[in-house]
Design a protein that fits this description.
Shape: globular
Number of strands: 2
Distance between the termini: 24 Å
Strand order of the largest sheet: 1-2
Order of helices and strands: HEEHHHHH
Mean pLDDT: 78
Radius of gyration: 17 Å
Strand content: under 5%
Largest sheet: 2 strands, antiparallel
Helix content: over 70%
Number of helices: 6
């Protein structure tokens, strides 16, 4: 981290923060208009926003480094937070003395899906970043990266899990999660991406 500039460290911190927040939020089930989903559906897309901004500003090599350096802190903190707040409710700090298989599966699934999804996102984004328009790269990369990330995460975390609700509905929730992520990316995150990109380029990098 010593070789990172201040903007790089901020993006690294945001990666870790959203990863930990989403691993907590995915334990909280929601039913919206009769559709089963989780709170994590509305937090995790921020990771792709951060990754695409990282590639756009610093290039794919530094983006991969940031993803790599975020995985272990994200893994450790996700397990700690997930154990203390298992199933979304405060359990007490004494729960850290007992191994939680449920939280461990979520943490490992998140780590695997995060690494796979973000590297796929970087690969697609890098191919399209030189286009005249700024928006095709983040849109295409989020569509592809989110699909891989979502399927990998829910399959590893909840297939035959001891959480009856998630074990029964994981594939349904995964598809809803993916659809909501794509809709949110188009309606919310893509415009936000443009605003933040403009800010970082002008204010932080001095361009």
């Amino acid at each position: 981290m010593n070789s990172f500039s201040f903007p790089s460290r901020k993006l690294w911190f945001f990666h870790v923060f959203i990863l930990v927040l989403s691993n907590y939020a995915v334990q909280i089930p929601l039913t919206i208009f009769g559709i089963n989903t989780t709170l994590g559906t509305f937090t995790y897309p921020f990771i792709f926003l951060t990754t695409d901004l990282t590639v756009r500003i610093f290039g794919q090599h530094k983006a991969r480094k940031i993803v790599f350096l975020a995985t272990i802190p994200g893994l450790v903190l996700s397990y700690i937070v997930g154990t203390i707040f298992e199933h979304g409710a405060f359990q007490g700090f004494e729960y850290l003395t007992t191994f939680s298989y449920f939280v461990f599966r979520i943490t490992v699934a998140s780590l695997s899906a995060y690494a796979i999804g973000q590297l796929a996102d970087i690969l697609v984004f890098q191919r399209l970043r030189e286009l005249k328009w700024w928006w095709p790269a983040p849109m295409a990369s989020s569509i592809f990266g989110n699909l891989i990330d979502t399927l990998a995460f829910f399959a590893i975390a909840f297939y035959h899990t001891n959480d009856a609700f998630m074990a029964e509905h994981w594939f349904e929730i995964a598809m809803v999660d993916y659809a909501v992520k794509i809709a949110a990316n188009i309606v919310i995150f893509l415009p936000v991406y443009g605003v933040i990109l403009n800010y970082l380029t002008k204010k932080i990098l001095g361009k």
